[in-house]
Amino acid sequence: KQEVTQIPAALSVPEGENLVLNCSFTDSAIYNLQWFRQDPGKGLTSLLLIQSSQREQTSGRLNASLDKSSGRSTLYIAASQPGDSATYLCAVRRDNAGNMLTFGGGTRLMVKP
Amino acid sequence: NAGVTQTPKFQVLKTGQSMTLQCAQDMNHEYMSWYRQDPGMGLRLIHYSVGAGITDQGEVPNGYNVSRSTTEDFPLRLLSAAPSQTSVYFCASSYSSWGLAGTQYFGPGTRLTVL
Asked: Is A8 on the interface with B (CB under 8 A)?
């Protein structure tokens, strides 16, 4: 059974710092991996999707990498801002059939002004 | 586009009551899913659908029913509510599972309390 782990569970950084969030998964046979952002009391917003054949994806100040063989993904946030404060979740899709996503527990990020 | 909409936003039920959580999307997405989010357990898949008339079970399907009569709507039915079903429920959709078209879009959630 696929298990997805995100460490640390919570992170507090000063504004302007570059930071890395980690996601690990136990079964490397994945189809893709998505990073989401969740604000308190809200739904999830997709940030980046990486196919299993890709090594990284970039969107603005965000860069996500994938090392499928080692079961790891990282989300790099450059020049963090207070508006980046949220919970960040990663999720892996097993295959391109069905609609099965397995989520990690999330990292709660606080960026202090 | 309104995206993925869910109603109601909040609901309180008594044990044994039944109810339907509504989910609709206006993006012509084939794939739709229901998740529940619980502290310490993360998001877990309840049921999903890959098109009208096709549904399948996820990780935690017991106590829930779904149907998909149209592309737009994917209601979740609680047959006989139990306190263990107290949770936040999210509906999600995607155009397909292929490539970037597999990007999941989430609704705002329904917060359900069962007394």
From this structure: no
